[in-house]
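Example record

One chain of 160 residues, shown exactly as stored in the release files.
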Amino acid sequence: MIYLDPIKAYFEVVYGIQKADFLPLKYQYWRTNDVKKLKAFFATPQKIRLKHLSLSERKKQKYALAKQIYYSTGAMRKLQQLTYQKRLKLTAVIDDCLALNYSYPLYRTATLWWRTALYCDQFSRPKIPAYELVFVDLKPFIEQDIDNFCKGLAFLKKNF
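Predicted structure tokens for this chain:
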């Protein structure tokens, strides 16, 4: 995303946007007041690494989630009902389904919801609510997310 600050006379580029369930966005930014440098920035590939959650971020994530479980409305209520119907313990399912790292902001809702649905439905593929991006085919990204999660679940089943 490009921002123009006419008062301070510079461009700001926000890129590498990443999100994790129940945590604020992470991103990088770059500033310049030169249009040639701005063009050069976009002509150069930017190396973006997805960040892993630190222990403090994981605690914040679980705290935010615990508040939602306590108030138990909307999607969280449905999640509780789903795990209850499958005779699963919600806290154990959540520990297995919460992502351990940041990901690209492709989904409108927390990935926990569809990951838990996959977990409970024994790897069936539900409809995942992703953003509607006109020029971007999200299917490969979503399929990769699902495959990575299913491989992790298979590893857990095999080793524990």
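Notes: The chain has a mean pLDDT of 85.
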